[in-house]
Design a protein that fits this description.
Length: 479
């Protein structure tokens, strides 16, 4: 074989080798990625050619698939789409999926291992394949009250069953209509997406779990818990509460809200300090307890910077670095680097309501086969035990006093004992405001966190009335 022919043969051999390698890479190594690629029309045709399972709340389908005459046989529809968008997310030909539509995609499209028996039966019977259903824990009355209260605001409401961790309400505003992202008219879908893109706050961002904000005075519940758990304090322990407090090692004058005095004597019982949300008292209390005690209690509540899943991913909450006593004083009143998601804020209230046992929050009640038989049921799990029942009882008394006599009066419900804590977080624009609370009873039924971004006023003015309406909605509906 002459040299030129040898070179041609070698080149052809190399090309064949590369071709074989490429085919194997595509068929083996990249197979999963290609199947998941939204641009893969074969996958789209296959997925939209089978009936996707429903997302269910209180026995009603809030997301389902309807048959059409188009190339993509089934189209996703959403009943009360804007009401439940924070939970369902969307399922879109152009934009993929989000929310429960994403995290439970294998169940909904029927490829989850728990549906293997169904798939096998479909194969032998010739029955059209279909996906499984996902039943959520949401209480429709709670969700409606939360969204009504948030109307006109950027904010969130999270409501939990303290005894189980079940998510009763997951509301985020502004909201959007997932159905308009799921349509088959691609021009209309793109136009709606562009409309959402142009908004100052993207409605597709879940304010309840994906964003964290300065906590303000709701963090004082954590510091109060650390004090009571230490054994050195009770709710009646008298602590310093001056009108002004110079932070250690600085010239910074930490003041109370409106620069008002907390007490004419410059000291007051711990319960009174929480009732009126005294900054100078809690700054000194945090410093006295020390960083380790404050941080350990925060971490016991789940404030450790780590993300977790419900199964939607919840952004981690944090108290940040604390490099000095002055920083600790500011941290102890929810300032400086303390940043919480509304979900985490609700978990603080839930732990107090549940006698010091913090349950793992969960949004999925059960996984169902297409015939509605239950394949998997979520079992409540304890996440941590931040403090004892005795400490929880004292915190409940203190937070009840906040609503009865202090900054949380607008959360009062006639004939029902409500416990809570307000929070106002300073901001470049109008202040953010918070309310966390619960309706204590022998079997606590609901714990709530309300957050309003740039709400102005105080947590007692803006957030507390929303919490009241959410609690009332749940209790009147019988839970």
């Amino acid at each position: 074989m002459n040299a030129p022919l040898r070179k041609v043969a070698i080149s052809v051999l190399v090309l064949f080798t590369l071709l074989i390698v490429n085919v194997n890479v595509i068929q083996v190594l990249r197979a999963d990625d290609l199947r998941a690629d939204a641009r893969n029309t074969r996958v789209l045709t296959e997925e939209y050619g089978r009936e996707r399972g429903a997302i269910v709340v209180d026995g009603n389908e809030i997301a389902s698939s309807v048959e059409t005459d188009s190339t993509l046989r089934y189209q996703r529809t959403y009943a009360n789409g804007p009401l439940y968008a924070a939970a369902t997310g969307y399922y879109s030909v152009l934009f993929g999926n989000r929310g429960i539509e994403r995290v439970e995609n294998d169940v909904l499209r029927g490829t989850d291992d728990r549906l293997f028996g169904r798939r096998l039966a479909d194969l032998f019977t010739g029955r059209d394949p279909s996906g499984g259903n996902v039943e959520l824990t949401l209480d429709p009355a709670v969700q409606e009250a939360a969204m009504a209260g948030l109307a006109g605001h950027v904010g969130a409401v999270v409501a939990l069953d303290p005894s189980t961790g079940a998510v009763l309400g997951l509301a985020s505003t502004p909201t959007y209509d997932p159905g308009q992202l799921a349509g088959s008219d691609t021009a209309a879908v793109r136009a709606y997406a562009e409309q959402l893109d142009a908004m100052e706050t993207d409605p597709r961002t879940n304010q309840a779990i994906s964003e964290r904000y300065p906590a303000g005075s709701i963090f004082k519940v954590v510091v109060a818990a650390a004090a009571l758990a230490s054994g050195d304090y009770t709710q009646e322990t008298v602590i310093p509460a001056p009108q002004d407090y110079i932070l250690p090692g600085t010239s910074t004058d930490l003041q109370n809200f409106g620069n008002e005095p907390c007490s004419p004597t410059g000291e007051q019982p711990l319960i009174d300090a929480l009732t009126i949300s005294c900054n100078t008292a809690f700054a000194q209390l945090g410093i006295e307890l020390g960083e380790d005690a404050v941080r350990e209690m925060a971490e016991a509540f789940g404030i450790d910077g780590e993300r977790f899943e419900i199964p939607l991913t919840v952004q981690g909450s944090t108290i940040g670095d604390i490099e000095s006593d002055a920083a600790l004083g500011q941290t102890s009143i929810g300032q400086r680097d303390v940043a919480l998601t509304p979900m985490q804020a609700a978990m603080i209230a839930a732990a107090v309501a549940n006698d010091g046992d913090l349950m793992n929050p969960y949004l999925v009640e059960s996984i169902q086969a297409p015939d509605l038989s239950v394949l998997d049921q979520t079992e409540p799990e304890q996440l941590s035990e931040p403090f004892s029942e005795e400490v929880a009882d004292q915190l409940t008394a203190m937070m009840t006093n906040v609503v009865d006599e202090g900054t949380g009066r607008r959360a009062q419900i006639s004939g029902i004992e409500v416990a809570g804590k307000t929070g106002t977080a300073e901001n470049a624009g109008p202040d953010h405001n918070w309310f966390i609370g619960f309706a204590p009873a022998d079997d606590p039924s609901i714990a709530v966190a309300v957050f309003i971004r740039n709400g102005g006023g105080t947590g007692g003015d803006v957030s507390a009335p929303i919490a009241r309406s959410v609690i009332e909605a749940h209790l009147q509906g019988g839970g």
